[in-house]
């Protein structure tokens, strides 16, 4: 068992490094321009490996000539938002290496949860099915705070209902559920008759289904009239959090308001699992793809309460992260999507 613990701790450190991959230092990485690749035509074989949902009907470096999308608007069920179809420029050519090159996508309408799945909602799933999360199976999960000397550790007894461990208070019902792996999130989504969104759908929704080029879903400023618009880290991570937004860890969903589309918590609070493996954008337009173009980690979007710009500005709409599918962390949750 000790060897298994050590292996998972190593994986946790690797995943923490992946999360830190949104560091601004990446801007100085040497990157390969698409112009230097062998082709700029879409790599159809690589695209198939991504297993994107049927809502994604176009991907290309060029804006699609036909930008129309059939309107199939319906009244969304409670707790979900109708996301209109449209075109979106995914990524940012001014962003980090993992956000480049930006590319165009065309997305048909779908539904998305208004907010991340809460502790109360996940409890209903557990009580209805007897489901046991991977953190519960392993007996521990990842946390970092003052009690860990600002180092990532696998905390014994950390679970979805006690994300910081049994020696801390339980997670409030109206907070996003955390300490759930990608596999756990996927199981919940199937039980709920939904699915996880892919990165393209998520960014389309974060850009308010209008290809907004704002940094965040609500605009370009993290504060409005001195008030924070998201639950993020204030200060210098991980040394000092001045806690100006009032939350050291997760916050109740919806605390910081809604986006123009009607979604909440699209920046900060918790990273959100995506359906797809994290992939190199450039590989969509390069033949042949390289082994490293498709990772062994599932993508995450939205940033979290641990993000601060000097090391992680992942709460921008183009920000990305990832973790291995069995990993459970106290700042990673999920929301669901549904086909129309």
Description:
The protein is of the alpha+beta class. It is built from six helices and 16 strands. It has a single domain, classed as Alpha-Beta Complex (paralog of FGE (formylglycine-generating enzyme)), CATH 3.90.1580. The chain is 17% helix and 19% strand. Strands 14-13-12-15 form a four-stranded mixed β-sheet. A three-stranded antiparallel β-sheet has the order 1-4-3, with helices on one face. A three-stranded antiparallel β-sheet has the order 2-5-16, with no helix packed on it. A hairpin with a 2-residue loop joins strand 8 and strand 9.
Secondary structure blueprint with pairings:
Layout lengths: L1 H18 L24 H7 L5 E5 L19 E4 L2 E5 L12 E5 L2 E4 L5 H11 L4 H5 L1 E4 L9 E4 L25 H10 L7 H8 L16 E2 L2 E2 L6 E2 L3 E2 L29 E9 L14 E8 L19 E3 L8 E2 L3 E3 L1
Parallel strand pairs: 12-15
Antiparallel strand pairs: 1-4, 2-5, 3-4, 5-16, 6-7, 8-9, 10-11, 12-13, 13-14
Q: By CATH's scheme, which homologous superfamily applies?
A: paralog of FGE (formylglycine-generating enzyme)
How far apart, in Å, are the first and last alpha carbons? 46 Å
The main pleated sheet reads as: 4 strands, mixed
> What's the rounded overall pLDDT mean?
90
Give Rg in angstroms: 19 Å
Q: Provide the CATH topology.
A: paralog of FGE (formylglycine-generating enzyme)
| Principal-axes shape call | globular
SS element count, helices: 6
User: Residue ranges: pLDDT <50 for 5 or more in a row?
Assistant: 1-7, 21-39
Helix content: 10-25%
How many beta-strand elements? 16
Following the backbone from N to C, one meets helices and strands in this order, namely HHEEEEEHHEEHHEEEEEEEEE
- Provide the spatial order of strands within the biggest beta sheet: 14-13-12-15
* Strand coverage percent: 15-25%
């Amino acid at each position: 068992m000790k060897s298994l613990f050590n292996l998972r701790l190593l994986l946790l450190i690797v995943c923490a490094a992946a999360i830190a991959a949104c560091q601004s230092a990446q801007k100085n990485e040497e990157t390969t321009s698409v112009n230097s690749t062998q082709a700029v035509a879409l790599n159809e074989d690589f695209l198939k490996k991504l297993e994107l949902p049927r809502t994604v009907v176009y991907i290309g470096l060029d804006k699609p000539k036909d930008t129309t999308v059939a309107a199939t608007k319906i009244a969304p069920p409670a707790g979900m938002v109708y996301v209109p179809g449209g075109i979106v420029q995914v990524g940012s050519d001014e962003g980090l290496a993992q956000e480049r090159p930006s590319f165009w996508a065309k997305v048909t309408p779908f539904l998305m949860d208004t907010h991340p799945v809460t502790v109360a909602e996940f409890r209903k799933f557990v009580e209805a099915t007897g489901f046991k999360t991977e953190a519960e199976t392993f007996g521990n999960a990842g946390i970092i705070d003052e009690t860990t000397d600002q180092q990532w550790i696998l905390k014994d007894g950390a679970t979805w209902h006690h994300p910081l461990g049994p020696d801390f208070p339980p997670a409030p019902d109206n907070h996003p559920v955390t300490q759930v792996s990608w596999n756990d999130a996927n199981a919940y989504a199937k039980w709920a008759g939904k699915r996880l969104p892919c990165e393209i759908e998520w960014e389309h929704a974060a850009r308010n289904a209008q290809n907004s080029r704002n940094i965040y879903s609500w605009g370009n400023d993290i504060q409005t009239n001195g008030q924070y618009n998201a639950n993020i880290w204030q200060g210098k991570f991980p040394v000092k959090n001045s806690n100006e937004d009032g939350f050291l860890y997760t916050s109740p969903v919806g605390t910081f308001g809604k986006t123009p589309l009607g979604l909440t918590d699209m920046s900060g609070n918790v990273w959100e699992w995506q359906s797809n493996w994290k992939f190199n954008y450039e590989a969509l337009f390069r033949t042949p793809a390289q082994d490293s173009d498709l990772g062994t980690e599932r993508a995450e979007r939205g940033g979290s309460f641990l993000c601060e710009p000097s090391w992680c500005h992942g709460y921008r709409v183009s920000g990305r992260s990832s973790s291995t599918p069995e990993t459970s962390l106290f700042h990673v949750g999920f929301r669901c999507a549904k086909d129309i």
